[in-house]
Amino acid sequence: MADRYLRFADTAAGRFLTRRLGLPQPAPLLRWSPARPTLEGGLLHLTAGRSDLGLEPVLARTGLPTGSADAPAAVVLDASGVRDVDTLAEVHAALHPVVRSVAASGRIVVLGAPLDPADHHQAAAQQALEGFVRSLGKEIGRGRTVNLVRLTDAPAAESTLRFLLSPKSAYVSGQVVAVGEGEQPDADPDRPLAGRTALVTGGARGIGEAVAETLARDGARVVVLDVPQAEEDAARVAARLGGSALALDITAADAGERIAAALPDGLDVLVHNAGITRDRRLVNMAAERWSSVLDVNLASVLRTTDALLKEGTLRPGGRIVATASIAGLAGNAGQTNYGASKAGIVGLVRSLAPRALTEHGVTVNAVAPGFIETKMTAAVPLFIREAGRRMNSLAQGGLPADVAETTAWLAHPGSGAVNGQVVRVCGQSLLGA
Length: 433
Prior knowledge:
Elements: H1 4-9, H2 12-21, E1 43-49, H3 56-60, E2 74-81, H4 85-95, E3 107-112, H5 120-139, E4 145-150, H6 158-164, E5 176-178, E6 197-201, H7 206-217, E7 221-226, H8 231-241, E8 244-247, H9 255-262, E9 267-272, H10 287-311, E10 314-323, H11 326-330, H12 336-360, E11 363-369, H13 375-378, H14 382-390, H15 400-411, E12 422-425
EC number: 1.1.1.100
Protein name: 3-oxoacyl-ACP reductase
Family: Belongs to the short-chain dehydrogenases/reductases (SDR) family.
């Protein structure tokens, strides 16, 4: 369903009226397309504190011209050397003069360091960057985003910086991403997943279909898995993408073994997207509504992941990307079952990620969508739908493509240093953080 308010707010009359009445002021977001693969403008590199990250070669590969700009499309502030309250003042001094000049749909990325447990002054100053980034993201407006990346190795963060400094991250704001150390394999920048196989559960429609399309665009051979009732739709999507379809109930006890048998040559990217809702307030929720949601959204993810790791189906260098939700992070009335299942995904990621990387060479991360414009949200009553759209820093709903682009970044061969992360794709929802 079209967002008519967004269209109105982008007119001269709409801008005047929304300002006068103190109403949300959403701006059209610049998203990736073949015609516009990069942000429109230059990149400004600033520093607060002393740093020896050696960012210049990495920033040069983002596709944005570096140097001073009157209206930069992106600003990268290296604050990894901030170690105390005094050097925090350099963050203000660096960004205060340029924030207003950042182009519409522009990006600000602050680089921080891991918190030092032996230095509580450094830890306090670096933690302060999170509050700074999330607050700036809520006030900057005009479709601009602000994110924080904690890193020690600039080359290992290249795929993350390329994502956050591109139109692909249009609906990701107010996020904190930790990047460890890792190798950067050679990959075609236009088709980084070439030669890799990706499986997307619930891939026949909605967000799952968008994920399958994006992974195929990036070169993957995609297997579209969905329930037998959606076999025709899954086959249609797979045929369009040059992939294959797999009709399978993901809640079956032997689903993992059947997936392994269907992929004898192995799997590189596993996207757990299948999910259902059965909303009721707890006092009115029958046991079947609880158990069906937990089985599809959480238990099936645990079972199939365990089976595919045990079978060795996921090859070294593989990626697991699960779908959480802000409902699991902030809670949502009428969704105790759904919220529990999605919070369970977060627990799975945080626990499994270090072991999966050590034992199997596989990373485990999650995306947590907020209000995404789908057929399901289009059926939500008008006032509830409008509240969902506006209650984020960008004052609009996201698109399935936003979740898909974030998934593709986590699936990238160069994202091996990103592990155990839960990234919200919610326009920085005002619920929770």
